[in-house]
Amino acid sequence: MIKEAIGKLVLRESLTAKETEEVMKEITAKRATTAEIASFVTALRMKGETPEEITAAAKVIRGKASRINGEGENVVSLDREEITIERETIQDTAENLSKGTNIFNISTATALVVAGGGGKVVKYVKKPVFPLCGCADVIEALGVNLDMTSTQLERCLRTLGICFLRDPLVQNGLEHIIDIRKKIGIRTLFNLLDPLINPAGAKIQVLGVYEAHLTETMATVLRHLGIERGLVIYGEDTLDEISITGETKVTELKEGKVRSYLIKPEDFGMKRVRPDEIKGGTKERNAEIILDVLKGSRGPKRDVTVLNAAAVFVIAGRAEGFNEGIELANQSIDSGKALDTLKGLIRFTNSERRFLRSENEMEMG
């Protein structure tokens, strides 16, 4: 099927959901060659991925991914495509490094502020490649143990309102294509799929994307996947976060309808800043920044965290609008509850011990 699909794509013809599904099954079952996979995703990007194609591919991946019980309608899946392993993103990031626009891990700080404000957040994290610093890196630098079982993660979510799912736990059938992604060197369908895995089955989802035109596409995909409320974000300079350096395009999914709008920091009484004012660095530096924010430090890094947390409060139904969401986020920080959430997460994850049976025990059992 994959050869026939490539033939259609090079003619700029879109695939049906069934055709995409069959191709993804071939890929995940390792029946497609490296050359075929590379040709398929490259041709698909050149044509432009449709919501139907992305949805069909996501359903195959979701069907293979491990799951945890998210429990409850108000759990938010807060995901970014942080395993940006292809040369295109690395080159963009390297260029931004020279311009001082590599930001700290805003979504990690956001998750802790939301949980401190009474929300429930699940975040799926991966290990990126150098020079990028992803959520898994900074979370470990903060002292959180990511080596947790599904049962422990479920208990962590119930107890603290937050959990971070590490990549090895969520097998999705695409582990063998990492080298292919590196060799291709461009953003492809795979970049769009990781944030859609949603291992906790949350009905509320917040995604960041790397191109403005993808916000409506991905919001439509969320609707097709059964998400009840969602936000897809493209921010100026900060890309997949809400920006305080310029405008942010937000596409909202609510009650089955998709609508887009632009916001800017001035709309909420915040000062527009230069990209280097929310600059990050190593995992240790990013952990230090997050701790400073949670301890109540004022400035651009707090502002961008608060604004992103406000968006989560809004889409989760905990705030009527951004201004109320900002108030909730500030309360989470100033009351110390956001910092307490981090401390509780460190205690919980380090007091748990993963029990793995040996191969001999499993054979005997």
SS strand fraction: 5-15%
Class derived from helix and strand content: alpha/beta
Radius of gyration: 20 Å
Mean pLDDT: 86
What does the overall shape look like? globular
Helix content: 40-55%
Rounded to the nearest angstrom, the distance between the terminal CA atoms is 41 Å
Main sheet record: 7 strands, mixed
Widest sheet: strand ordering: 3-2-1-4-5-6-7
Domain module tally = 2
Count of helix runs? 16
Order of helices and strands: HHHHEHHEHHEHHEHEEEHHHHH
Identify the CATH architecture of the largest domain: 3-Layer(aba) Sandwich
Describe this structure in words.
With 365 residues, the chain is of the alpha/beta class. It folds into two domains: 2-48, no CATH class; 75-351, Pyrimidine Nucleoside Phosphorylase, Chain A, domain 2. It contains 16 helices and seven strands. The protein has a seven-stranded mixed beta sheet, sandwiched between helices. Helix 11 (214-224) links the parallel strand 4 and strand 5 (229-235). The chain is globular and about 60 Å long.
Q: What's this model, at a glance?
A:
The chain is α/β, with parallel strands linked by helices. The chain contains 16 helices and 7 strands. The chain is globular, with a radius of gyration of 20 Å.
Question: How is this fold's topology laid out?
Answer:
Elements: H1 2-10, H2 17-28, H3 34-47, H4 51-64, E1 75-79, H5 87-99, H6 106-116, E2 120-125, H7 135-141, H8 150-160, E3 162-166, H9 178-184, H10 189-193, E4 204-208, H11 214-224, E5 229-235, E6 248-254, E7 257-263, H12 283-294, H13 300-315, H14 322-334, H15 337-351, H16 359-364
Parallel strand pairs: 1-2, 1-4, 2-3, 4-5
Antiparallel strand pairs: 5-6, 6-7
Helix pairs in contact: 1-3, 2-4, 4-11, 6-13, 6-15, 7-12, 13-14
